[in-house]
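Action item from last week, closing it out:
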Amino acid sequence: MLPLLACPESTAGSWLSFTRFASRWITQPSEVMLAFVGLFVLVSLLPKRWGRRPARITVVGLALSYLLALSPLFINLAGRVLESPIPDDSGMPAEAIVVLGRGNGYNPSRITVARELWEEERAPLIFASGISDAPRILRSLQGQGIPDQSLQGEECSRTTYENAKFTALLLKPQGVKRILLVTDSPHMMRSILTFRGFGFSVTPVISSGLRGLNRTNKTFTVLREWVGLVSYGLMGRYSRQPNPEMAFSPLPPQHPASSHNG
């Protein structure tokens, strides 16, 4: 386990805060429509020569587009588009099973999938990635009989990019190139592209999808993933990334009874 005290400096703070705020804000119609009303009033005060009418039409068009984007029909379609490019699990073995943590609501299905893959001998190692999530995932797998020598992880990453970066930091020196990547279907495409950028050959294994989410969580998840998918592309995070320097060695996972500063 790469412990918190040994974490490299994270660049995710401001970006992570912004994406969480933006994703949650756009799923609050009352607040967003109030902002559109304020913007409509503001552009209505513009002089005619500055294009007051086209500005008002633009604001109304954006407001209607926003309401359409929140409709169940649009969210279902956007979710399907997120999931449709994911290649099927080929059934091929790999060198490690990489499990991306994403909170208590998602982790149980990921733990189940990781254990099943290990029991099927698809890979000899399970690697958990994610701040606060990785220790819980590893403890749960230990409790289900997975031996310590088959478990590793890092508890530093706060974003998908850091999941890939810190996983590469620890697994690449061990010669791991082919991985089975375990995450939910909306998150999978962005994860595949990001991990490929760090030189991994990725076989996706979906742990859960959108069907089990209520409307609010489904809307938030879909919109957030589209924001993430597009923004990662604009930031060049799918292109080939430099190999992170190995500054420390992975530590074995803690035993369930031991204390953990997570």
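Closing note: The longest helix spans residues 215-234.
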